[in-house]
Specification:
Order of helices and strands: HEEHHHHHHHEEEHH
CATH topology: Triger factor/SurA peptide-binding fold
Oligomer: single chain
CATH class: Mainly Alpha
Strand order of the largest sheet: 2-1-3
CATH architecture: Orthogonal Bundle
Helix content: 55-70%
Length: 216
Amino acid sequence: MHRRRRTALTVSAALLIAAPLLAACGNDAHPGAAAVVGGERIEVATVQEKVKDVRAAQQRSPESAQLIKDSGQLSRAKLYDLIVDQVVQRAADDAGVKISRKEIQDGRAQLVLQSGGEEQLAAMYLQQRGVAPDQLNDVVRRDILVSKLATALGATNTPEGQQKLNQAFTAAAKSLHIDVNPRFGAWDNQKLELGTYKAPWITQVTKEPETLETGA
């Protein structure tokens, strides 16, 4: 069970490593929006608030200077997270996969045990994935949802399994008609990518990047 949970989180990390970050065929048709996904606006102010939370957490860390240095494109990272949340949700909806509040609570509790406490868990996610403490539940939810989707699709933790999972995400992304403000980059449905940006903390949580990175 312990091994299965770590594998699930690695599959989710593989989605992220395979999807560097935002992009789009965006234009200025939606002033004030960082992106429009599935007809819903992601406001620039929302992205800025996410960035502010992470920066505040980084400032409180003993490794503050290094964390800030390693996350220079944080606005893109946060917008990517917001977009990918919707892509994963659409793919899960298409496959009939659901997640309960209890599953999120149990998943977080298991991560707390694995990391040695809430404080250690928060520090790990801040360092490795640029996630502020109050953003943790959203990331845990997405990780578990990706794991459940992979199981539903029969997508094993192999290059072939990752390709099957990426195909589901690509289909979901296309159906959402993702349109990103050019200041953040351009979205690629096939590569699930935002420009050429790759968050440095993503590679740190993937144990086998040479195996899991499929380029899709």
